[in-house]
# Entry
Amino acid sequence: MVLNAERLPPMLRISKLTDYATVILARLAEEGAGQHTAVELAELTGIGLPTASKVLKGLQRGGLVASTRGARGGYTLARPAAAISAVDIIDAVEGPLGLTECASHPGQCGLEPSCRVGRSWQRVNVAIRRALGDVKLTQLIGREANAAPAADLAVVLGSRPGLRVRS
Amino acid sequence: MVLNAERLPPMLRISKLTDYATVILARLAEEGAGQHTAVELAELTGIGLPTASKVLKGLQRGGLVASTRGARGGYTLARPAAAISAVDIIDAVEGPLGLTECASHPGQCGLEPSCRVGRSWQRVNVAIRRALGDVKLTQLIGREANAAPAADLAVVLGSRPGLRVRS
DNA sequence: CCTAATAGGACTAAAATGGTCCTGAATGCA
DNA sequence: TGCATTCAGGACCATTTTAGTCCTATTAGG
# Structure
């Protein structure tokens, strides 16, 4: 994988770094509970060391991997793969940036009067995040085809192999 | 609205242009079936004329609005608001760019061997698009609180006013 | 105390985004 | 016919993001 990102739809885009993160997490999940150094993971995945390193730091801050420093240090998953969701990964890698509504800076916008639209997009956004929260690393890896309950998105996710691809 | 985009999560981000598009479409939907020039719409929405114009061109190409040129020309919705979905808007404004899987250029990636991850993200992506296809302009405008059937995302969308905001 | 590792940033290059502007083509009307 | 109006299509530039590299701590083992 690691998608050649040139032609992905801007919205709903998965940044390369997020993708790297998934690949790396997949490794950590596969190789048992073993500890792996950044160097090892870089080699295993084929990602450049500096970049892999950067990603791992992000995952560390996000609490998805646990690290030990010094000689014989390395990284492990901080929790079972089934307890790590897609949003977790995205948030960890793409920063702690909040979901800022226009509401948080009222008046900044200028077009607010007649506009009921902004709120709706925010809700869409949040809804997607929720759905993404139900997609677990185990599913992303492909180990677990379908999640149990809720998970509107996850259901669709697990249900079919080849989906329609829009032009 | 027109969200002040500085602090939105990169992924799941709605580009400003898409937001503008929604605001403009909302106007076209509200003002009956009337025809409006780019100038009028710019004034009504508060968006700069060149920008509004650009957005309208995109919507035209995407088939969401119909245009007539020349004196007394202008724009109208190409179909009823209930038949225009969020994905339609996004696609129209953010380009005709396809959903390119690694699959379409096999071998480009280099890390393909051990990687089952890419596909999954693609499926997530497609799943979100599907869900977004069920969110109609009428809902974005707020005229119709909740859609009828299907629409996993739409259900969540219509259900609650103020949702949890992640840090 | 020396070596192996991670933590945290600073920094750069390349790409995407938002916005402006110009030129061309269609339409209506005097 | 010819002029004013209005959309179509891009070229273009400035700014912001993203990706990627590197340097300097800090922590742990032997």
User: Anything to note?
Assistant: The helical segments of chain B are 16-30, 38-45, 49-61, 86-94, 117-133, 137-141, 152-159.
